[in-house]
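Thread: zinc ion complex, take 2
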Amino acid sequence: MTNLKLANAQSASLDVDAVVIGVVTDDSGPVLAPGAAGIDEAFQGRLVDALSGLGAGGKAGEVTKVPTFGSLAAPLVVAVGLGESYDAEALRRAAGVALRSLAGSGSVAVRLPAATADEVAAVATGALLGNYAYLNYRTGDGDKRPVSEITVVTETDDEVESALERARTIAEAVTLVRDLVNAPPSDLNPEVLAETAREVGEEAGLSVEVLDEKALVEGGYGGIVGVGQGSVNPPRLVRLAYEHPEADKTVAFVGKGITFDSGGLSLKPSEAMDWMKSDMGGAGAVLGALKAIAALRPKVKVVGYLAIAENMPSGTAQRPSDVLTIYGGKTVEVLNTDAEGRLVMADAIVRAGEDEPDLIVDVATLTGAQLVALGTRTTGIMANDDDVREKVAGAAGRAGESAWPMPLPEELRKGLDSAIADIANISGERWGGMLVAGIFLKEFVPDGVRWAHLDIAGPSFNQGQPYGYTPKGGTGAAVRTLVQIAEDAAAGAL
Ligand code: BES
Ligand code: MN
Ligand code: ZN
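Output below.
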């Protein structure tokens, strides 16, 4: 991982390949943000003129590169726009944009506003997350290598070390998830994902339990077994647990871990299939969050379930019209094998009830309808309790992740009535597919347990251009929200 360092503004060495500064927009034009002052001196106070001359206005996302011609030890100043005013997320994005624009450089000093520990954490997190490249399958030396050393320059000494450590922890967790999502599904089948979870979990000091295909059949996990039975790569259920000795609340996270979703016999068309390696993003997020939580040690108990299978068509695949028995006994008529996520999630949600959680949060790349409703970047939040939905939305906002509350209208339940089983896995109702999937999952939430459901179908995988600190491909969506939820639960705020 990138070497992340801290330096005080007074003593910071500028012997780096580039110095990043911030620019704010103002009615009168671009204005240097706090942190940039020392750099302006090297330009004899004419940095703003130089930036204006280059067309910089300070708009968020804007990057302007200015050569220093020897006036600084660093050959390049990179001015990044912060918009009219900036919050933590604006700092994360600006740092991320800057680092992305510097891929291939060796060392970078970041002199964005970093006057408080929170600002230091935001700048460091954004820089680390923007400085991401997935190179596992590239041969030869491209110019896309991430920066090897990032120095965050700050004016404060207050708790900056722990802010930096937090940034590292969060970035490492998000990076893990991005790597898993980006991995080709031939190399990340259910067994590999489960064994990776075991290794990551044990390394982090979590207790880890892995159920293989035999244990899943014996245990009655009909959803995971049914979805997995069409693949030569058999399914898994992973349980990870973290417990602080002074914990008095338990939170359960459940993640969808479909390592590849072909749709099964209800086969997807090619253009909908080629990004379905990302269908384990929910399980990835749960694993990443547990890893970070084990390092941050909040006073809470957290269990994580990864419901893992590969959804493939074959002579052994489940058929549309098969009936499965979910863990705990409810039956489901599978009318469309492409609505597989809800089947594996149902098993894991019921099982999570055995940990007697105060709250279950599930995370899944569940529906294309999420993208229709909320677009590619905003997670849909549904819940069986208004208060929980609002609190989860609040946690996502504080974590810097875009998420929005959505309803679970009761009238949608009747569309899931099955002619022969307790419930069908698709609805006769055409509209509101994200909500229908949420209604389906709600049926499996243990009585009396508060539950929230995050549909991250769009946010988990960026098919478009990179933006802010978000690269193309796997994004690590929901990791930071889950960590925030665990911390909120520890603080008694959930
Ligand atoms: N994994 C998909 C949902 C998805 C779509 C995730 C696009 C990311 C991007 C899920 O398993 C699925 O296929 N859902 C179906 C459900 C339908 C058959 C009721 C869908 O949304 O089309
Ligand atoms: Mn599917
Ligand atoms: Zn799926």
